[in-house]
Design brief:
It contains 15 helices and 20 strands. It is of the alpha/beta class.
């Protein structure tokens, strides 16, 4: 029996966005085979062809911006203002990587002795298998696909089931400007993801830690290059000299914007010294965030992606500690909503202090000094992002040096990344090379060293 992929509108769960058959394992393998056939001509077509196609793809996405933003908002519950921002970011990513085919693909070196020529040259792997999450249904597929395509790979994309409609529409737009089989979307679940890992030449994954570890294990056993971006348990450290009002506003947005459904969302807040000023300001800031239908331009915190995700947040709030604000669903909303929630006085080992709960909820605590705060921030398994809020440059630099995270933000929220810079975490948050920026070009290519001597 063929599995069915269904995605719902989390703000109006009775509305079905997509209901289609899953691709199936055989279908995924066939798609990879077709892409591998297309890969040689795509790679050998030249930098100009690939650059022009990516520029055209950016034009297509930009022209469909209103449609795409509405679809993102409806399918994954992203507030419409953030959804428009994601579309704009997707366009910018495509334009950035459209320039990259003209970058050098190697370097020339002097031979150690005698005549001859030594040079290196980067080459595509063939087929890039991409497994992407639902929370950034356009930007993440594109920040993986664009560098893969720019370097001459073909792409097979397996999106998360709740974002299937977005992926299919994105695929349609890119199909208008790419040759046949250069990019293929294969809807499905775990079976399709497993088939893609088993058959692709290079694999990039973003999603949960548990699934990411399984992807890494399977790809590594096959000798397939793999990168995996997984969870975060991101901490914000606030020193007494910080602008408390500004810090509270940034933290509230990082905790509850898009219902906290970002891998870079703030999950722990650590006040250095007296916690009362920050605690009171943060509670007030969270309570001012508009919760409700993501189609409204004023909404900051929309629904959770599923009923189970909503229930997990509410259960975490009730499982120990003191709820400072939130901990319940808003009245009058039919979708899967939870109010922005802050909890303190947590017992040792509490879920909110140790594991990522993907929703608008954070743990609040205090530390007597900066060293203790840094140690507490570093005490979890993940290491994706951290923020520090202070007017003291020395303190900021100490945090930048000692926080074991891939991203450190100073007087800025943990959320938000620059697509032209390397992105990734430490410890359980990431495996393999960094994503985005020039780092992505290295990941999607292999380097050959060539020794050229004159014939005798």
């Amino acid at each position: 029996m063929t599995a069915t992929v269904i995605s719902h509108n989390p703000a109006h769960p009775d509305e079905i966005l997509t209901e289609i058959p899953a691709t199936g394992r055989a279908g995924v393998i066939a798609a990879v085979d077709r892409s591998r056939t297309a890969a040689r001509s795509w790679a050998e077509g030249g930098a100009g062809r690939r650059a022009a196609a990516l520029h055209a793809a950016a034009d297509r996405v930009e022209a469909a911006g209103d449609e795409l933003a509405s679809l993102v908002s409806r399918e994954v519950g992203k507030p419409i203002t953030e959804a428009r921002g994601e579309v704009a970011r997707t366009v910018a990513i495509l334009r950035y990587y459209a320039q990259q085919p003209y970058d050098p693909v190697g370097s020339v070196h002097e031979p150690a002795a005698g005549a001859g020529l030594l040079f290196t040259r980067r080459a595509p792997y063939g087929v890039a298998g991409l497994i992407t999450p639902w929370n950034f249904p356009l930007a993440i597929p594109v920040w993986k696909a664009a560098p893969a395509l720019a370097t001459g790979n073909c792409v097979v994309l397996k999106p998360a089931e709740p974002a299937t409609a977005c992926a299919l529409r994105l695929g349609e737009l890119l199909d208008e400007v790419l040759p046949r089989d250069v990019l293929t979307v294969v809807p499905g679940g775990a079976a399709e993801g497993g088939a893609l890992v088993d058959s692709a030449d290079v694999v990039s994954f973003t999603g949960s830690t548990a699934v990411g570890r399984a992807v890494v294990q399977a790809a590594t056993a096959l000798g397939t290059p793999v990168q995996a971006e997984m969870g975060g348990q991101n901490a914000a450290i606030v020193l007494p000299d910080a602008d408390i009002g500004a810090a509270a506003a940034q933290l509230a947005a990082a905790i509850a914007g898009y219902a906290g459904q970002k891998c870079t969302a703030t999950k722990r807040v650590i006040a250095v010294g007296d916690p009362a000023p920050l605690r009171d300001a943060l509670v007030a800031a969270l309570e001012t965030l508009a919760v409700g239908d993501p189609a409204r331009s004023t909404t900051a915190c929309g629904p959770l992606i599923s009923e189970q995700a909503r229930d997990t947040v509410l259960a975490a709030a009730r499982s120990g500690g003191r709820v400072l604000t939130g901990g319940r669903s808003p009245a009058g909303e039919h979708g899967w909503y939870a109010r922005p929630t802050l909890v303190d006085e947590l017992p040792d080992g509490h879920l909110l202090a140790t594991e990522e709960v993907f929703g608008p909820i954070a743990a609040f605590s205090s530390a007597p000094d900066l060293d203790t705060a840094i140690a507490r921030a570093n005490s979890v398994a993940h290491g994706l992002a951290a923020s520090v809020h202070t007017a003291d440059l020395d303190a900021a630099l100490r945090c930048a040096d000692r926080l074991d995270t891939g991203l450190v933000k100073v007087n800025a929220p943990t959320t938000g990344v620059d697509f032209h810079l390397p992105f990734g975490g430490e410890k359980a948050s990431s495996h393999g090379p960094r994503e985005q920026g020039k780092a992505a070009l290295d990941f999607y290519t292999r380097t050959r060293t060539v020794t050229l001597l004159a014939a005798a």
